[in-house]
């Protein structure tokens, strides 16, 4: 039985991940700074910056579902991820990061990202920049077994759970209908699949609805 921890466990993506993991027989511990709003078997109320190596010891994987939206909070994408990397450094515990789509590339040369394109909404640029910066810093960590999973461009909180997805890489990928879309529920399937049988260590991958 896999034993996982979900950090920032009260968020909507985190709750889908927890539900998917429980349905597959995983043992799930949630960590969050607010009162428990999850289905995890165990919940520890603790701020992410207060987590220690002992808190995360013995887990097969730690899922980082942290996210902020206010422009002034954007540096926390980097600082929280660095903290998790530091306390997992040198261990066999995988760190699986719920990422963003803005940093996916739209050309084969990997010089233009989604967030650089003319149609990218200004309102999402601070988040895309903040998460993209954290990803770039994560790429420098060779002491942690990390995997960064970007969703499709249209990431739907209440979208259908189809049970099908396309696993892709660093480039924005469209399905056969020309869509870049995935629900939180299908994203959670892909994330748990990666923990269960994937081996994309120190890689960024992405998922889109099939």
Automatic annotation (TrEMBL):
Coiled coil where? none
One example of the protein's molecular function in GO is: oxidoreductase activity, acting on the CH-NH group of donors, NAD or NADP as acceptor
Q: Which domain of life is it from?
A: Bacteria
Which SUPFAM superfamilies does the entry mention? NAD(P)-binding Rossmann-fold domains
* NAD(P)-binding domain location: 9-193
Q: What is this protein called?
A: NAD(P)-dependent oxidoreductase
Q: Which organism is it from?
A: Candidatus Weimeria bifida
């Amino acid at each position: 039985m896999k034993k996982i921890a979900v950090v920032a466990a009260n968020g909507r993506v985190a709750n889908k991940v927890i539900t998917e993991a429980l349905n597959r027989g995983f043992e799930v511990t949630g960590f969050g700074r607010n009162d428990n709003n999850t289905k995890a078997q165990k919940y520890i109320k603790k701020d992410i910056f207060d987590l220690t190596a002992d808190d995360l010891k013995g887990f097969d994987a730690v899922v980082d579902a942290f996210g902020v939206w206010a422009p002034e909070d954007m540096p926390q994408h980097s600082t929280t991820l660095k903290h998790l990397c530091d306390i997992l450094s040198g261990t066999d515990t995988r760190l699986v990061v719920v990422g963003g789509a803005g940093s996916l590339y739209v050309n084969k040369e990997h010089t233009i990202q989604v967030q650089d394109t003319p149609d990218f909404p200004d309102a999402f640029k601070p988040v895309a920049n903040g998460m993209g910066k954290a990803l770039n810093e994560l790429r420098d960590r060779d002491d942690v077994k990390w995997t960064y999973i970007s969703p499709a461009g249209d990431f739907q909180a209440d979208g259908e759970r189809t049970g099908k997805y396309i696993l892709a890489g660093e480039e924005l990928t469209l399905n056969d209908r020309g869509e870049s879309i995935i629900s939180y529920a299908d994203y959670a399937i892909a994330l748990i699949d990666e923990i269960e049988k994937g081996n994309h260590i120190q890689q960024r991958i992405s998922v889109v609805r099939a």
